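Section 5: illustrative case.
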């Protein structure tokens, strides 16, 4: 497993009071691209409580995308949410605190295919 330092520097800039203080380059593991599955190279970092961070450079938007992945309250899968900066991260973590670090299960679908919605009902980017 390859260590990846790129997310560390970007997260220090975008998340100076949270991730920059909690994660360093050794906490990130790089994953190679998979052309057949159309997956780009990425990096992941495990957080306590079963939460994960996923970092990828979005070539369409020409910017990095940081996603928080957390277990679902049903216990059968994970739900992801794209983070839009440090304030968004703090808001999501505050919401997760009330449910023991798990996203509330919604709908009848597979948790692995669910994406969290914003409070106003639009899918998070």
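Designed sequence:
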């Amino acid at each position: 497993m390859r260590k990846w330092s790129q997310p560390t520097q970007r997260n220090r800039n975008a998340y100076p009071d949270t991730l920059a203080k909690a994660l360093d380059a050794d906490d990130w593991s790089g994953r190679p691209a998979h052309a057949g599955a159309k997956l780009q190279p990425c990096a992941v970092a495990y957080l306590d409580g079963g939460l994960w961070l996923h970092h990828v450079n979005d070539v369409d938007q020409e910017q990095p995308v940081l996603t928080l992945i957390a277990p679902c309250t049903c216990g059968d899968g994970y739900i992801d949410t794209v983070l839009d900066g440090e304030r968004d991260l703090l808001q999501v973590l505050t919401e997760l605190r009330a449910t023991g670090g798990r996203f509330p299960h919604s709908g009848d679908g597979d948790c692995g295919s669910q994406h969290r919605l914003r409070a106003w009902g639009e899918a998070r980017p």
